[in-house]
Amino acid sequence: MDISHQGPRLDPVLLEITNNVCGLMRSGPHASSVAERLVRAGWRSKSTSWHAYELEATWCQFEVEPTTDSAVLLNGVVDPVRFDDLAALLTRLRLPFDLELYDEEGALTREIQS
C-alpha cells in the first residue's frame, strides 16, 4: 500500500527550485507508514531504497528516510505559499514533525513544529 504510481505529479515550475523544505518526524511512524498515509490522502509514492520513499503532489515533493534512532527525515521541495498546507496535512495525518523552509539563497525563512 505504500507504493502508488497514481496521483498528481509535481508542477514542472517547482522542479526549478532547489530543495527548500527539510524536516524530522521524531518518535513517529516508520517511513513506510508515512508513505502509506500520504498515498491514502491522494499522493504519489515510490520506493527510493529499501526503507526510503519519495512522495509527490502537484505542490510538493519530498523523500522520507528513516534514521538510526527511530526518527524519519524529510527533505525536498514545497511551493513556499503551501508550506502551511504541508504542516496542516501532516498534523491531520497525526504525523509529529519539525519543518523548516528555506529561500533561494538557502536562508531559513520559517519553522513549524507540531
Oligomeric state: single chain
Beta-strand proportion: 25-35%
Give the low-confidence spans.
Answer: none
Q: For the largest beta sheet, what order do the strands appear in spatially?
A: 2-3-4-5-1-6-7
User: How many strands?
Assistant: 7
Distance between the termini: 26 Å
Order of helices and strands: EHEEEEHEE
| Computed structural class | alpha+beta
What shape does the CA trace take?
A: globular
Question: Percent helix among the residues?
Answer: 10-25%
Number of helices: 2
The major beta sheet can be summarized as: 7 strands, antiparallel
Mean pLDDT: 90
What Rg do the Cα atoms give?
Answer: 13 Å
Task: Please give a structural write-up.
This protein is of the alpha+beta class and 114 residues long. The protein is globular and about 30 Å long. The protein has two helices and seven strands; from the N terminus they run E-H-E-E-E-E-H-E-E. Strand 6 and strand 7 (108-113) form a beta hairpin. It has helices at residues 31-40, 83-92; strands at 21-25, 44-47, 53-57, 60-66, 72-78, 98-102, 108-113.
